[in-house]
Amino acid sequence: MKDRGGKGQPSVDERYTQWKSLVPVLYDWLANHNLVWPSLSCRWGPQLEKATYKNRQRLYLSEQARSSCSPHCTPTDGSVPNTLVIANCEIVKPRVAAAEHISQFNEEARSPFVKKFKTIIHPGEVNRIRELPQNSKIVATHTDSPDVLIWDVEAQPNRHAVLGAQDSRPDLILTGHQDNAEFALAMCPTEPLVLSGGKDKSVVMWSIQDHISSLATDPVSTKSPGSGSGSKNTSKAGGASDKHVDSPTIGPRGTYQGHGDTVEDVQFCPSSGQEFCSVGDDSCLILWDARTGSSPVLKVEKAHDADLHCVDWNHHDVNLILTGSADTSVRMFDRRNLTSGGVGSPVHIFEGHNAAVLCVQWSPDRSSVFGSSAEDGILNIWDHEKIGKKQETVGARVSNYPPGLFFRHAGHRDKVVDFHWNSCDPWTIVSVSDDGESTGGGGTLQIWRMIDLIYRPEEEVLAELDKFKSHILTCA
């Protein structure tokens, strides 16, 4: 993201300075963690411990080694290994942190709340991380290859990321793509299924259960029953065919064709392992049902006016699907009424970014709340039920706020490539930015929770503030 300063637009640095001055007012808690290498993905793992004032929880992120020749050279030169990092995070509980403390952080320092627990040396860059809902110690990763890599992060040995270090061995490799599958990756909430999309314009589904079944029936073979490519004993992961000769592989349960260009994101229906959706560079949103075959159930031809980057399915209302696009908008679709006149007919279009949207995600706690992050360095929090109602948008100019927007997180100074709501800790979000263009390299990881006065019911908040009315007037 370039410096977007200009007429009426503050520069990135000016915006950041203004944001930091407001941290004690807008946030209940915030941790800022400098990353030497950028991370393209961040995900919460299992909660480990509950204490009086804070909880401890696993966090998955990556370190994307870049060539030392230039901060803009994304491909690694091979000297520094790419890593999948398992960290332990201390998450301060609500209404514990002192307001004056949470804004006193050094942008160049690592946070005391984030401690590296284990390092896995990953074959190639870690583009996407997804945890298995049934067992969040199992994660899948995408790299610049056709394969999906499965890791048991607790069983994997801790490695040191030194020059020339050998790659860690994946616990399982999922084969089936005919070209690189770099970003589109999802895990099923109801059963151990994995979904992926790639440059081969295909959506591919696997069952991790096939690996367990094949071990039970034939301990020597890595072939899964009925899978054409399950007998492969090597992988193209990381661009080498002999690196993981010992890793078992399984082939897909199904391959689904319908996109005309690269598939950029996929998502399961929260209530079914057989229903899923995908979006791609063909501007299409496609709904699938594995029970009806490998062709689309419903195809939205022009869901956006540009490439689609991301999609998410509402866990509380399975009719609602979010999409984010290079056209800078987020759109909400109702699957009961997806199209009109052959083109996408969204329930609402959310326009609060001025660059390509990279990630959208529904809140696990509120059915109407979701977040969106973009190349403009902003992470917006929306509530679609607020559309058409009187509202105040925190962190934005009230006179110029988009409908539904009620909080803007402006703590990143470059593109926010990923974020994840914490299902164990309501309203707590981890977000990560790739700071290569703004600071010359590295990234920023932030764990934050807005102050509860922003999202609690208005009557409840006013009643609480009324109790402190005299104190507030004295301070004023």
Automatic annotation (TrEMBL):
Residues 14-92 form the Histone-binding protein RBBP4-like N-terminal domain. The keyword Repeat applies. Residues 216-257 are annotated as: Disordered. Keywords: Chromatin regulator, Repeat, WD repeat. This is Transducin family protein. Belongs to the WD repeat RBAP46/RBAP48/MSI1 family. Pfam families: CAF1C_H4-bd, WD40. Residues 221-240 have a biased composition (Low complexity). One of its GO terms (biological process) is chromatin organization. WD repeats lie at residues 256-298, 350-383. InterPro entries: Histone-bd_RBBP4-like_N (IPR022052), WD40/YVTN_repeat-like_dom_sf (IPR015943), WD40_repeat_dom_sf (IPR036322), WD40_rpt (IPR001680), WD_repeat_RBAP46/RBAP48/MSI1 (IPR050459).
